[in-house]
Design a protein that fits this description.
Layout (H helix, E strand, L loop, with lengths): L2 H5 L2 H31 L4 H7 L2 H20 L1 H24 L5 H29 L4 H26 L7 H31 L1
Helix pairs in contact: 2-6, 2-7, 2-8, 4-5, 4-6, 5-6, 5-8, 6-7
Length: about 200
């Protein structure tokens, strides 16, 4: 009954897409990183496991920054900063990969910075979703979470399908960059909608 009310809210969809696409970059990483670690970098499964901690460390730092500064800076600006952080880190990693700088430290270092960006985007985007209609906060949280998982599963499957022997890390980084760019567009859409509403008000 409550879903149609949320479905008509542009701000809800902006926050939802920002969260879905930001987390989608991480899910794509989960789907493709084992292949990249073993086939591209020649790492053992144990070494891949060590490097897998990179986004978790970044995410913890991003969460800390969110808890400390979101109230002062504002939800939207924190989401914007996180989305820009993700896109810059992944974009630089993609450029390095295209330039032949295929190094575990560059790849997983960029993933750590992406995790930091996600730690800024996700808690604030979830709070934004629930703030659109506070009386429907539970519905917003459930719908947003379901869409994030579905989008993440699709991107993870896409990464797995595109990564083939000889492909290198390029397809995975391209997918992650596209997802991060979509997240940035989504929060910019929220800024635009709020500017329009303030002019109308």
């Amino acid at each position: 009954v409550n879903y149609p009310i949320l479905a008509r809210s542009h701000r809800f969809w902006g926050y939802c897409l920002a969260a879905t696409l930001s987390s989608g970059a991480f899910f794509a990483y989960l789907g493709g990183a084992p292949f990249v670690g073993e086939q591209v970098f020649g790492l053992t499964p144990a070494q891949v496991g060590y490097w897998f901690a990179a986004p978790s460390i970044g995410y913890l730092i991003g969460n800390f920054l969110s808890a400390r500064f979101s109230q002062r800076i504002g939800l939207n600006r924190m989401i914007l900063m996180g989305a820009v952080t993700c896109l810059i880190a992944l974009g630089l990693a993609l450029l390095a990969d295209l330039g032949g700088l295929v190094r575990p430290l560059i790849f997983f270092g960029a993933i750590a910075v992406m995790g930091l960006g996600n730690g800024m985007v996700l808690p604030n985007a979830n709070a934004g979703m629930m703030s659109v209609r506070p009386e429907l906060a539970g519905t917003a949280s459930g719908l947003g979470g379901a869409l994030a998982v579905a989008g993440g599963a699709a991107l993870s499957a896409l990464a797995g399908a595109l990564l083939q022997p000889g492909s290198g890390a390029t397809p995975l980084l391209a997918i992650m960059c596209a997802s991060a760019f979509g997240s940035l567009l989504a929060i910019l859409w929220v800024f635009r909608r709020e500017a329009q509403l303030s002019r109308q008000g």
